[in-house]
Each structure stands twice: as structure tokens, then as C-alpha cells.
């Protein structure tokens, strides 16, 4: 299977939200990383036919042209929007049933599929709970379930891990891994660690453009000899904080251990560390770091 995206773009007034995107994606997990406003949601909406491309262009699932054979394309698509609407008074089962009907699925199939998905997403005990009574993480899981109702060939998940607790994150990883063998999965996230060792390839979006598309190992290779650790006094640390991108600080009494990014050895006692995706992200998006969840937690 191939999802082929040919030269699609979207402008909002003077703002270019998606710029000439060309991609070819096969079965597997494709993670889309980017700061707030980089164009991820707009690109996903375009791949769902909800936002039109202004540069012409095309989207194909194998031989199906999304623009010309939209219903056939939709038949193979599962989408979880970043903020999905639901009727608060519906129970989880009623909501999923409603979504199945909207997708044009058969009654018996919907029933069987809902039961499978409630087990898979650990929502069985919430089957008869009203949507309005669910936590943010549970609502996310219902959102993933509705996207999977039609057993899609393309699964698009916009920020699927937002609001999930650590256990739910592990379940999510396992579920995505098991689906990835025969599904083209595109997911966006701000939480870089959620895609580590999960995504087959990583797409990095900045100002509407895909600026990197590569495997995690190849992206990390570009960070070799750029990630350093050093333990210094508080006073020296203050200076280094001004001069370098700091990924993490750990206090040890009168000393501070810094994980920092630099093209050159920043200090005679600095030693090299193995790069992580967080390092890669910060190196390229340092100016947009305030919007990056993991970094906010570790920076001082
Ligand atoms: N309906 C709209 N009208 C005007 N501008 C829009 C609209 N939707 C998106 N934009 C703009 O397009 C750009 C890309 O937005 P988009 O929501 O696609 O980014 P994003 O990467 O998904 O961000 P986030 O991570 O915050 O969801 C932003 O500058 C945004 O303000």
C-alpha cells in the first residue's frame, strides 16, 4: 500500500500553513513532529479531504485518487482530530455506534467491532458511561476507537497521546505497533519520547514545510558529537545557560550537571552523550522550545 501525496499546499490569508508537501508513505508508523502552528493539523485535515489544496496537487491511496474518488478513499480512512466533537449525553457505546452509522458501516459489524475495540482500548467498564463523565485520557481513547471502527488502511491521529497517563501511553504504543504491520499510520505529537523506538520514520514540519523525513537512527546520527554533559559550579552554570541550548539540568548540592547542545566542545571537562530525539528537536526548534512539553519539564 502507498499513500502518495503530491504537491499540496494551503494558505490562510497571508499565512502559508502547508507548503508544497510531497510524500510517499507505506505501512508503518510515521510520526509528524513540529512546534505549535507548524501546520500539522492542517496537513492532516488535507489528507482527510476536509481542507482543500490550493496548489492543485493530488493524494492517492494506491490507485484511489482522494479528490476524484472521495467515498472510496474515505472507506479506508480513520481520523482522530485533535479536538473531536461528541454528544455529551451519549454513552460510550451509543457514541461509537453513532460514529459507525455515520461511516456507513453495517449494524452487526458495528456491534462486533465496538466490543473488540472496547477491550483493545481498555474501555469495557466505561461502555455505559456518559461521554461527559469521562476523563481527558478516556475521551482520547474513545477518539482512537472511533477512528478504528472501519478497520482503516490509513490511520491519522492528531495528538493521540495528549492527556494519556503513563500506563495508557504504554498500551497506546503496543496497540499502534500491532496495527502498523498493515496500516499506514500518521500521528502527530508534541511529546517526543512518545515516538521514540515506535515510529518507522519521522517527519519534521516547520513553517508548513517538511524539513526532515528520515528514520530515527539517521536523524540521531546528525546529532553525533553535539550533545554534551558537564558538571560545574552554579556560577559557571549561569554562564553556560546564557551561551548554550540547555536540554536538562540536575542539581547536586553546590554543583549542577548540564546536558547541553553545542557544535564544539563547550568546556574542557565536557563529555559527549548519546543523542536522543529531544536533543534533535531542541537543536532545530530551540526558538520554539517554550511550546515543547518535555523540554518545559526539564529546563530551568
Ligand atoms: N482556520 C484557520 N484560519 C486561519 N489560520 C489558520 C486556520 N487554521 C490554521 N491556521 C494557521 O495555520 C498555521 C498552521 O496551523 P495548524 O493548526 O495546522 O498547526 P499545528 O502544527 O497543528 O499546531 P498545533 O500543534 O498548535 O495544533 C498556524 O499559523 C495557524 O494559526
UniProtKB/TrEMBL annotation:
Molecular-function GO terms, alphabetical: ATP binding
InterPro entries documented for this protein: AAA+_ATPase, ABC_transporter-like_ATP-bd, ABC_transporter-like_CS, P-loop_NTPase
Gene3D superfamilies from the UniProt entry: P-loop containing nucleotide triphosphate hydrolases (3.40.50.300)
Superkingdom of the source species: Bacteria
Short name of one Pfam family: ABC_tran
Entries under PANTHER family matching the protein: ABC TRANSPORTER, ATP-BINDING PROTEIN (PTHR43335:SF2)
Family: Belongs to the ABC transporter superfamily.
Name of the protein in its database record: ABC-2 type transport system ATP-binding protein
Originating species: Breznakia pachnodae
